[in-house]
Fold this sequence. Notes:
Layout: H1 3-22, E1 26-30, E2 33-38, H2 41-51, E3 57-61
Amino acid sequence: MQVLDRQIAYFQQHQTQLAEEHHGEFVLIHAESVEGFYESELDAYTAAKRRYDAGAFLIRQCLRPEEETTQMFHSRIAI
């Protein structure tokens, strides 16, 4: 299993608890553990970028599963 896949699985396993305790905040996850909570995605990214290599961390907003939305974009541009 890839590093990012493990971090996503960790977030999904703890999502309800994280949403209850830190609703709306952004969580920084590294090595399958919570490294901190931040008010904005930019703050979380700035903190992560100083400490970890790209692809070694996950940033997600603490929302209940039913609050999340999926966006899909389509393009008619031919390559």
